[in-house]
UniProtKB/TrEMBL annotation, chain B:
This is YedE-related selenium metabolism membrane protein. The keyword DNA-binding does not apply. Pfam families: Sulf_transp (PF04143). It comes from the Bacteria. Keywords: Membrane, Transmembrane, Transmembrane helix. InterPro entries: Seleno_YedE, Sulf_transp_TsuA/YedE. The chain crosses the membrane at residues 6-28, 59-78, 90-115, 127-149, 161-183, 189-209, 230-249, 269-289, 301-322, 328-350.
Amino acid sequence: MSRLLQDHFDRWHVLVLLLAVFGAAALLLTAGGGGDAAARSELNRQLEQDVAYRARIDFLQDLYRPVLDLEKSGARQQALLKLEEISRRYPGEGYGFIIKGRILLQLDAVEEAVANYVDGVRLNGDFADRQGPFSAWNEINQLVSRQLPSFSERARTHPDNATLKRVLSNLHYLQSRLAGGCE
Amino acid sequence: MPVFDRHFWIVVVAGGLLGLIGVGLAVLGNPQNSGICISCFLENTAGALGLHGNQRMQYLRPELIGFVLGAVFSAAAGREFRSRGGSAPLLRFLSGVFLMIGCGVFIGCPIKLFLRLTAGDLTVLSGLAGLVVGVWFGLKGLAGGIHLGGGRQDPRGASGLWVPLFFLLLLVLLLLQPGFILFSTRGSGAQHAPLLFSLGAGLLLGGLAQRSRFCITGSVRDTFLMGRRTPLIWGLAAFILAAVGTNLAAGRFHPGFYGQPGAHLDYGWSFLGMLLVGWLSVLIGGCPFRQLIKAGEGDADAGLVVIGMLLGGGLVQAWGLAGTAAGVPLYGKVAVLVGLAFVAANSLLWRERVAEA
């Protein structure tokens, strides 16, 4: 320690170091009681991120409400047309693909339904989460567990059928996403 | 097999606990097959610090902090903390970036490779082959005269302290959670074991890894060199056995190629990604895990690799280079090839050639 305080140069630098450390600590300790101004000026990216996410949820629910209403009333074709209209305006939004997949599945268009679920999950992994406002985990899981055995068998018996191969590959993709993991 | 050697048993215990805790952390809440994954955790950490915008991959993983600080405590207790560094700094920094690219394309570091394998994920076999070939390439390079220069002892300075201090700062940020640090509320970043358990596990494994020098690529490298005589291969065996046993006990062993968590079927790119990781790891002296441990021992060169890995984690996510269940994106493939070119070029540039008579 004495070697650190040999001359004025050392003592000056140690003083600056201590002032800086204690000053920073004091700022941090007093910031909690700093009143509204301090709270407003605080950099809060987490809050911004959470607000943007909530706003997105509300916006999407509003945006797709007419489609969901049409689907509930049984007007599936009209719902699909409305989805097309929305997707032209927001082509990067995956929720439309998930809803379209669900409607196509109700119409027994399994291959197209699978492709739409894949597009939706690729655009946003939230749909393959078990929880969350837009979780489609249960419906995708049911789709995969029902369709995978039959498409595996059909692809095995028709190895040259490119369509079957593509659907099987899509089902395997969904199966992997449902399994989770870090990606 | 040197069974009466104390070091042998430290390595075996370290390997066994790494397998047990690696699976245990996933059981307690970490993402499936990612109980311990240095590259995924660095991507999470980079996200928490705002280096990328993937809101599903943001968390200050306590395990990483534990690894470094555990190594600090262990090195200090064993009087092995030595501040050292100064060899090929920029090369090591960029190597850290490319290590993360290789891991990102494969989806996981060498530890996760074995955790995935021991959970039955057979898609990793190509990555395993790539890792082994990469280590062999690295060894051939070392034998051919590639030498990055030894880190010099740093008696007056304290450059080796800065990475441990940075991880100490991360611990403070994790505990205080100020508003500028981001934490995922969904996706794999939101999946985590209880904080204190993760931190404790990291400290324990960090300390043991420092004492044992356990390293996945080091195990493969030493096996090439010494066969069964190296303790590291027995540590790796203990790791695999413990992980398989824990996966079986937890009902998490599902052998197959399809439906595996965090996996893809682009076998060629898995091979090349891990080849890059294995090759680089041998040249810079250890896999991503070992770099963290060495940084905790005061090795500023390893510390620079760690900082490179942190930046690499940010870039992999921000530029969308990482593999997903859908496969490896185009720019991820390009990045791996650039990484291989980087290693090859540096192998040429750093080779010490004996003047011909």
